[in-house]
Amino acid sequence: MTDATADADLNAKHNAKMAKIQTARAKMMAERQIEKGLLIVNTGTGKGKTTAALGMVCRAIGHGQKVAVIQFVKGALKTGEKVVFDAFPDQVEFKPMGEGFTWDTQDRARDIAVAREAWDAVKARIADPEIDMVVADELNIVLRYEYLPVDEVVAAIVGRPEGKHVIVTGRNAPQALIDAADLVTDMTLVKHPFRSGVKAQAGIEF
Amino acid sequence: MTDATADADLNAKHNAKMAKIQTARAKMMAERQIEKGLLIVNTGTGKGKTTAALGMVCRAIGHGQKVAVIQFVKGALKTGEKVVFDAFPDQVEFKPMGEGFTWDTQDRARDIAVAREAWDAVKARIADPEIDMVVADELNIVLRYEYLPVDEVVAAIVGRPEGKHVIVTGRNAPQALIDAADLVTDMTLVKHPFRSGVKAQAGIEF
């Protein structure tokens, strides 16, 4: 074969393969007719749990939806996204409820009270028919430390109004939450710059 | 022990543990002094690769940084984030370069030309001293189909100006890119609603 015919052959094979994928995808898409409010869990030790939730908030904003973001563990560093939320005051409510990381407060009784307050805020947003999406950022951390009973949290989320999306982030998601979820992603750490001595930087970690 | 003393004991143990974690974290943070432009790769079969990049764009916006987002594979559905980008026209440049998914075009020659055009756009943004962060969305897909040579792409990213962050998304990141990266996360699929017949929904998939 000349180069030109080899290339034409490659193109033809590729195009046939793509046509096949296209047909399979169209079939798959046609089979998906259910529309429902999802429980989404972003867990794992890698990066991207909160940032992926933020990305979904961006998409929801773009579709005119209303979103509430409740932060259970206030990272002093997580500040960048606030500027974006503030640009859409009618669509996004942002509530940082935690008062610093738990290893900084060293006061379990206060941590539990703050967790309860944040959870009450989440429940109120879940019940609010005006709100389309509720992000419970780092709720998994609070569950891990048993500041809130897992059963109570899962039951309230499972019993949410139809059509409401709830996104829960944080490592160590409890199994009961994973079982109840529609979409679960484990952000798996492959490589992290902290391990090479790189410090937290604007735009990346905060 | 009475309930009250048991509780006091639990609190004391917890607080001591948190103090220990706090000390370890402070030491770790002090050791991290390097500030550098990162190559970040979001790969894997799960959700969150592009949305996590969007979340980082939000943070960068909040810190007054300039960002370019180049989309190699235009998902007809990915439209929500544009509204957010458009709210910060001086900070975000958004360029959807692909002309539909490859399985829709079925034209390998055209796909290669479009990939080359998008890559040229990425290279120009990497070279531009005004831009702090460049997102090459779904570049991995294009590399997977060999529409661009991996060596050329990796060399150009590795040779980027100091301080420039580059984020590459898409499943099947090539090993050479992972080797060159500072931060790699594999978004691992645990559960996906498509498998239960749930269709793509506004705010979640687009």
UniProtKB/TrEMBL annotation, chains A, B:
Gene3D superfamilies: P-loop containing nucleotide triphosphate hydrolases. CDD domains: CobA_ACA (cd00561). GO terms for molecular function: corrinoid adenosyltransferase activity. SUPFAM superfamilies: P-loop containing nucleoside triphosphate hydrolases (SSF52540). Pathway: Cofactor biosynthesis; adenosylcobalamin biosynthesis; adenosylcobalamin from cob(II)yrinate a,c-diamide: step 2/7. It is an enzyme of class 2 (transferase). It catalyses: 2 cob(II)yrinate a,c diamide + reduced [electron-transfer flavoprotein] + 2 ATP = 2 adenosylcob(III)yrinate a,c-diamide + 2 triphosphate + oxidized [electron-transfer flavoprotein] + 3 H(+); 2 cob(II)alamin + reduced [electron-transfer flavoprotein] + 2 ATP = 2 adenosylcob(III)alamin + 2 triphosphate + oxidized [electron-transfer flavoprotein] + 3 H(+). Its EC number is 2.5.1.17. Keywords: ATP-binding, Cobalamin biosynthesis, Cytoplasm, Nucleotide-binding, Porphyrin biosynthesis, Transferase. It is found in: Cytoplasm. Required for both de novo synthesis of the corrin ring for the assimilation of exogenous corrinoids. Participates in the adenosylation of a variety of incomplete and complete corrinoids. PANTHER family: CORRINOID ADENOSYLTRANSFERASE. Belongs to the Cob(I)alamin adenosyltransferase family. This is Corrinoid adenosyltransferase.
